[in-house]
Amino acid sequence: MLNRFFGKNTHLYLHLLGLCGIAFGIPLNKVVMSISMMFIVLNLLLEADFRTYWNNLKSNNVYLLALGFFLLHIIGLIGSTNMDFALHDLNGKLPLLVIPTILAAKPVSNKTHLKIILGVFSGTVIFLSLLNFALYNHWIGQVEYDDIRGLSHFTSHVRFAIIISVVIAVLLHQLKTSKRKIILLLLVVWLILYTLYSQVISGLITTTVVFLIYWIHWFYQKNKVIAILPVLILTASIIGLFAWLFQPHQFDYSTIDFNERTKEGHLYKHDSSIFSAETNQPLLLFICEEELATDWKKYSSISIDSTDRKGQPIMQTIIRYLASKELRKDADGLSKLNQQDIANIENGMTSAYHQGLLGRLYGVKYQLINNSNPNGHSLLERLEFWRTGFQVASDNLLFGVGTGDVQDAFDAQYEKNKTLLDENNRHRSHNYYLTVLITFGVFGLLYFLFVFYSFIRFNLRSKNILAIAFIAIILASFMIEDTIETQTGVTFFALFYGLFSYKHSEE
Q1: Helix, strand, coil shares of the chain as percentages rounded to 5?
Q2: Contacts with 108 (C-beta within 8 Å, 6 or more apart), sequence order
Q3: To which H or E segment does residue 285 belong?
Q4: Which value, in Å, is the radius of gyration of the alpha carbons in the chain?
């Protein structure tokens, strides 16, 4: 309709504007995403070229399979007892219906237009990564943070980490043809450093997947040995990592003189129930709180009876930090700390190694060693989610529990298991393959996997390596996240799935 008044490409440009709005809103703001989605729907209705839409929809098999997965949620209403949750879940999945349908009816067929959308998305993510880093390090603003998860200021730190890996894929994809290779490489390096700094394991995994795919793509035809070498190195690294994480933490208590006194003559207190990830030794040996209380005020203005900047009792932070450096928790141990160590303690760091990726790995190892209580420990909680999820799935293997009853089934199984998880920590599986299996049963899971198989086959035939990188990121993230169970996650997935469900031309 608007083409008659403003020119023949008016609806095309409005279509691109709406898609750019979604791309802009994904890492930034849910309201922008929602408004932009409504905008592209309205533009399509105003254009009213329904015959073309219908023909495009019928001919796009990749889209039709994704539509089938959404319809599976509707079929899953049959037998569901919790209709409120089911309808809430369907409402949350609407982008999975709307965005691919719009992009199948009116596809972005021009590579230049696709580059514009990807450019808006990538530029927004890069800018937000810089802004997040500046805010977190208090270069600008006065935002206070509880922990590293606050680094992502505008959306979930996990979602943002996965989104960053897609931007890295976009930048690598442009390397071959761009005249600004140095700038692109610098941006890739920055996003890698940001991922390492953020300590998000999901982001590290998906970023690694991106590099493996592009490395194999670049070198497989030239030298298959070189192409496969990173896969072998990664496999060996993973084996070594697991060996280190699950290293036995035996300790010879006969080496400890429990009657030993401090240099100032005070008795130590000892507790061997918790082990240090850094030293593989009991964390709470050789503690003299009296000396810590007396001498701490020599180094810091924060009272020993107060909390650090994360709200943790600062006495406990001091003790754990000293343990990470294998120092006695007394006046002599405090005297061996430098100014940076004191600042770290004041900022709530419980270990001298709790920075970047190494800090995250030590955190994982700490959870595995001290695994008696899963609450507050993301890995131990996930292990409990998975164990409970597999139990629910095994009881409903053929057809699942239905769209609305997943959380109810988890809650019932948690009660049956007498789980140690607090009620506010009793979540669903955090593994989307498992979530699909629980919801729709084994046949639903097989259909779900066939959708991705068809997407991959289509894009392999189209030689679209960027689409392959995107879907590999999604499939990897499904292992440890319910990626499309949030508005940001499902919109992100729906946009890129829709964009890559059509072969793009150069025109």
Answers
A1: 65, 5, 30
A2: 15, 16, 19, 114, 117, 499, 502, 504
A3: strand 282-287
A4: 26
Q: What pLDDT, on the 0 to 100 scale, is given for residue 129? A: 94
- pLDDT score of 4: 60
What single-letter amino acid sits at 83?
M
Nearest Cα to Cα of residue 43 among 81, 93, 83, 98 = 98
Phi, psi of 199 (to 5 degrees): 65, 25
Task: Write the CB contacts of 245 (distance below 8 Å, at least 6 apart in sequence).
Answer: 361, 364, 365, 368
Nearest-angstrom CA–CA distance, 121 and 168: 11
Other CB atoms within 10 A of residue 148 CB: 19
- Contact between 82 and 109 under an 8 Å Cβ cutoff? The reply is no
What amino acid is encoded at 324 in this protein? S
Measure the CA–CA gap between 380 and 237, rounded to whole angstroms: 22
Structure token pair of residue 245: 């994480």
Distance CA 196, CA 201 (A): 9
Task: Give yes or no for a contact between 314 and 149, defined as CB atoms under 8 angstroms apart.
Answer: no
- Please, what's the b/e burial string for 441-466 (b: 16 or more CB within 10 A of its CB; e: otherwise)? beebbeebeebbebbbebbeeeebbb
How far apart, in Å, are the Cα atoms of 361 and each of 203, 241, 280, 284, 430?
14, 9, 14, 21, 19
Residues 415-426 have pLDDT tens digits of: 998 888 888 888
Q: In the chain, how many H helices and how many E strands?
A: 22, 2
- Give residue 219's pLDDT: 83
Which whole-number Å values give the CA distances from 116 to 166, 320, 484, in the listed order? 15, 50, 25
Half-sphere CA count of 260, side-chain side, radius 13 A: 13
Is the pLDDT at 491 greater than 90? The verdict is yes
The residues that bridge with 267 in the sheet, in sequence order, are 261
Comparing 434 with 177, the larger pLDDT belongs to: 434
> In this structure, what token pair is assigned to residue 205?
């995994």
CA separation for the pair 16, 14 (Å, rounded): 5
Highest mean pLDDT among 77-86, 117-126, 225-234: 117-126
Query: Each residue of 211-252: pLDDT tens digit?
Result: 999 988 888 778 777 878 888 888 888 888 888 787 777 777
Domain boundaries, the chain: 253-350
Decide if 92 contacts 485 (C-beta within 8 A): yes
